Amino acid sequence: MSRLALRLTALGAGALGALFAGQRFLHSAQSAPAPLRLASVQVLSDRLQPVTGATVRLTSSTGENVVVSDAQGQTPWVNAGAAGILTLTLAETTQAQGVLIGMIETLTPPAEPSAEDAALNEISRTQPLATPIVVQGAANTSTTIDAQDGSFQHWCVLVPAGSTLRFRAHAASLLDGEAIEQYLRYRGDSIHQSVQYTRGVALVVPDVRIGSGGFIVGLDLLGDLTSGVTIDAFNYTKTSTPTSFSIESLGVIGPKVFVKVTGELRQGHLALLARPQSDASPAQTLAIQDAPPQITVPERGGAGIDSVMRDDCIGCGESLARAGANGAGGAGSSTSLFTSTSALVTDCEPVVPNMPPGWECDCSVADPSGCGVTPGAKECHIVRMRSPRFCRPAGASIGVRRGETSKWKVTFEFKAGTGTPITSGGGFEYGEGSETVVTDGWTAQPGANNLGQCTRYFNFRLACGQWFTTFGDAWTVNEYGYLQRVPCAAPMSKQGVCVDKADSQSTCDRTP
Fold first, then answer.
1. How far is C-alpha 469 from the geometric centre of its chain's CA atoms?
2. CA–CA separation, 294 vs 306, rounded Å?
3. How far apart are CA 157 and CA 171, in angstroms?
4. Cα–Cα distance measured from residue 433 to residue 505, given in angstroms and rounded to the nearest whole number
5. What is the reported pLDDT for 311?
6. 85 FRET partner, CA 20 to 30 A, in 206, 211, 265, 299?
7. Is the sign of the CA dihedral 179, 180, 184, 185 positive or negative?
8. What pLDDT is attached to residue 184?
9. What phi and psi values does residue 136 have, to the nearest 5 degrees?
10. How many C-beta atoms surround the C-beta of residue 487 within 10 A?
11. CA 157, CA 165: separation in Å to the nearest integer?
12. What pLDDT shows up at residue 195?
């Protein structure tokens, strides 16, 4: 059995190690290989659950890669092309929990390679999850629909008493202007991408005749837009059949702005987006041709790069690996250049390190309504990203720059871990963002068989959620459409979420 070495360091300890001088396993006559620049994307829902089977497209100046995430939400490593910006597309996907809303963003990965370094960029993002709801009226009372998974009440749907309306939909929170701009890019709506929206909700709807009674949508402003708010409504649909719907602003009551939706919707999305009030730009109600990107997953599900800088082919493995990583980019690119043609060495697989038992964080939530909060059970889970595998002969060294750009936005009350909190104007914390670059060095030891070693780097993220019972505001609407707020009258369960982070490295001994 091969000897296994584990190294664990907590985030914030500074650089993970100085570069070690060592012998490169190359003939002196060979020219210096081009540096590697790879990227991998981790996708989580805005409930902080890893998304299995997410379709991700990374576009660079040299081409594009289409890849699919694994059970940890991580895509394979792919060639990130020349230095510069990347365009990240998270495809809209229907899953058992709901509909993951499509998003497009442009980013600049933080890590760039130096002369002989490998630059690994880990990109971690949350994708809005539209959860299923049933919009249904009742004979003698109004109906309130909101998220039932402990989420903060970013949105709610109210149906007037006596309404005969009934249809199934999905609802997702668009938590800030950045998220709304990425949503509009995915829908192909270039006209409204530059509008300074602040908060939004996206409803995935069927063809439905709403009628004049309609339904009401409330959107929590989280302390923003205190000088006035305008709501724009867009029905994104692929059908060419004319649609006729309208919205009526019912004003701001407490923390929420309310609008009434009437008429007829076509299958697609109904986006309700809040922006600062402007007399020069009145509210818009438009049916817009939906134009999401067409993304095709390659035949092998979006292959990537798992091992780099291998030297199994004595004297040529490193140059082959580097040439393959830089020369065979594109969706589903082959990894055959990384496969050994020598039987002299068998590369080993470093095991996933075990994190310390009892790892948790503080998930307590605020009580802004003063209705009282009682804590309940806490649950924690760990998600991880891993680097490609590096396998080297005894004494050979590598220098690796690992860059991470992380942005998590969640539907729960949130406590940032090691990143920068993302907050509303009213101080409500709904996410965190961070960008780090760590330069690390590793020298392979002889190992048990004097054949060298293999190593991987790991990035662990802890996410804890704690349930709380409380009472929130209740809302009623009569058959005439008048709203009433009843403080601390609605029993509810809510969740608080916190995160933490740690890095690790795992090394194993190669065998004959």
1. 28
2. 27
3. 10
4. 23
5. 62
6. 299
7. negative
8. 98
9. -145, 135
10. 13
11. 12
12. 95
- pLDDT value, residue 323: 31
Q: Which residue has the tokens 């649909």?
A: 237
Q: What is the mean pLDDT of each run of 10 residues along the chain (512 residues)?
A: 38 31 31 72 96 95 91 94 87 95 95 79 97 92 88 92 93 97 98 96 96 93 94 93 88 93 96 90 93 91 79 40 33 34 75 88 81 87 94 91 94 86 91 92 93 94 89 76 79 85 94 90
DSSP letter string, 198-227: -EEEEEEE-SEEEEEEEEEEEEE-TT--TT
Catalogue the E-assigned strands of 112-196.
118-127, 129-136, 143-145, 155-159, 166-174
Radius of gyration of the chain (CA): 26
Which of 64, 73, 122, 124 has the alpha carbon at shortest distance from 95? 73
DSSP state for residue 244 in the 8-state scheme: -
CA geometry: angle 238, 240, 244, nearest 5 deg: 100
Q: Which two tokens stand for residue 332?
A: 């589903």
Predicted local distance difference test score (pLDDT) of residue 5? 39
- How far is the C-alpha of 64 from the C-alpha of 53, rounded, in Å? 18
Distance CA 158, CA 170 (A): 15
**Residues ≥6 apart with Cβ < 8 Å to 20:** 397, 441, 442, 443
Q: Which residues contact 102 (CB under 8 A, 6 or more apart)?
A: 89, 90, 91, 92, 183, 186, 187, 292, 293
| Closest of 193, 233, 206, 195 to residue 217, by C-alpha | 233
**DSSP element (H, E) containing 442:** strand 429-443
Rounded-to-integer distance, Cα 404 and Cα 113, Å: 14
Beta strands in 312-423 (DSSP E): 373-386, 389-392, 397-409, 413-415, 420-423
Tally of CA atoms within 13 A in the half-sphere of 90 that contains its CB = 32
- Residue 435 has, within 13 A of its CA and on its CB side, a CA count of 5
3-state secondary structure of 34: coil
